[in-house]
Amino acid sequence: MDYNATQSGFRQQPNMRQRNSSMEGPDGSQLFEDTSGAGPRTQSGYRNQQTEPQQAGFAGQSLLSDPMSNLAMAYGSSLASQGKEMVDKNLDRFIPISKLKYYFAVDTVYVGKKLGLLVFPYMHNNWEVSYQQDTPVAPRFDVNAPDLYIPAMSFITYVLVAGVALGTQNRFSPELLGVQASSALVWLIMEVLAVLLSLYLVTVNTDLTTIDLLAFSGYKYVGMIVGLVAGLLFGRPAYYLSLLWCCAAIFVFTIRTLRLKLLSEAAAEGKLVRGTRNQLRMYLTMSIAAAQPIFMYWLTYHLIR
Amino acid sequence: MAFTLYSLIQAAILCVNAVAVLHEERFLSKIGWGVDQSVGGFGDEPGVKVQLMNLVRSVRTVMRVPLIAVNSVCIVLLLLFG
């Protein structure tokens, strides 16, 4: 009820209707508690000012037809649009917005199939990302393409499930949600930086972008959520079992996805190619894949007691 | 386990400082990591060690001046706010 007074003058009639209804039931049958300081006194203050906003509303309409204020409004709106343009241009330099849009072009079928792949990747045969004239196809059309929708959603869900898990152990407080979120975010950033550093050191010529790596590192949150929910519902043995299953699944998923991107053509098809570079690349793929279960366990074991 | 973004920034500053302090002729050449030892063969076989040496050298070159500013800011903030 407090913010009725601050609404714009264009909606005078519904405002006054609301104020009337709130004042007509002061003897107990109000829908919401009026928590604004001294109740009845401020309401009578509103009653006196009821006629005044009406007059101000009429005066405001004549104010708008004044040519000076027309000019002022036009200037203000052009300034606002200039500011918006500048912000958009500068923001686009740091965060490539148009590239980000590609990663969120998903639909329900894709999300369903991808979640199924993350939990059971053993039956899938064709892991290649299909291209369309040299640009990768949007995730909506290709289940192998990386996206950022699932990692973002599962990160937020992980923070919420962690809150629930802490709540069942009477360890919850609202600051802990922020602590969990920033912890997980820091680990994610460190993992992406470590992968980037190792990719640089091994001089792999790949078309994996940073956002791709962020997406692949974010896929493990799905397994973590499954493990946490199983642990909350059925106890510790269920937590360990489901975590084991999801760890194995993420391991296989990561290896099969990264194999095509990091290794050379021949090695990716399964033939044993000798040479230190291919060995290094193979070790790199294995270590990236092995880091996922470690992180999955590290970020969830303290939530299940 | 309670990591914050601030601790990540602190760790990053410390690591970059550590890399920037490695002296070229007093230390790196002595252990065989100097720039004169990094001119290997041509072709696409740089190897991990050469890449690492190049990384150290470029971090030192790029981050010398910004590190002065960042360290000063950090020192002032730590003195004021503990």
From TrEMBL, chain A:
GO terms for cellular component: COPII-coated ER to Golgi transport vesicle; endoplasmic reticulum membrane; endoplasmic reticulum-Golgi intermediate compartment; Golgi membrane. GO terms for biological process: endoplasmic reticulum to Golgi vesicle-mediated transport; protein transport. InterPro entries: Yif1_fam. It is found in: Endoplasmic reticulum membrane; Golgi apparatus membrane. The keyword Transport applies. The keyword Membrane applies. Residues 1-55 are annotated as: Disordered. The chain crosses the membrane at residues 148-167, 179-201, 213-233, 239-259, 280-299. Pfam families: YIF1 (PF03878). It comes from the Eukaryota. Residues 1-23, 41-54 have a biased composition (Polar residues). Has a role in transport between endoplasmic reticulum and Golgi. PANTHER family: PROTEIN YIF1B, YIP1 INTERACTING FACTOR HOMOLOG YIF1 PROTEIN. This is Protein YIF1. The lineage of its organism: Eukaryota, Metazoa, Chordata, Craniata, Vertebrata. The gene is yif1b.
UniProtKB/TrEMBL annotation, chain B:
The keyword DNA repair does not apply. Keywords: Membrane, Protein transport, Signal, Transmembrane, Transmembrane helix, Transport. It holds the Pfam family Yos1. GO terms for biological process: endoplasmic reticulum to Golgi vesicle-mediated transport; protein transport. The chain crosses the membrane at residues 62-81. It is found in: Membrane. InterPro entries: Yos1. It comes from the Eukaryota. Residues 1-18 form the signal peptide. GO terms for cellular component: COPII-coated ER to Golgi transport vesicle; endoplasmic reticulum membrane; Golgi membrane. Belongs to the YOS1 family. Regulator of endoplasmic reticulum secretion that acts as a key determinant of brain size. Required for secretion of extracellular matrix proteins. Required for correct brain development by depositing sufficient extracellular matrix proteins for tissue integrity and the proliferation of neural progenitors. Acts as a regulator of the unfolded protein response (UPR). This is Immediate early response 3-interacting protein 1. It comes from Betta splendens (Siamese fighting fish). The gene is LOC114863055.
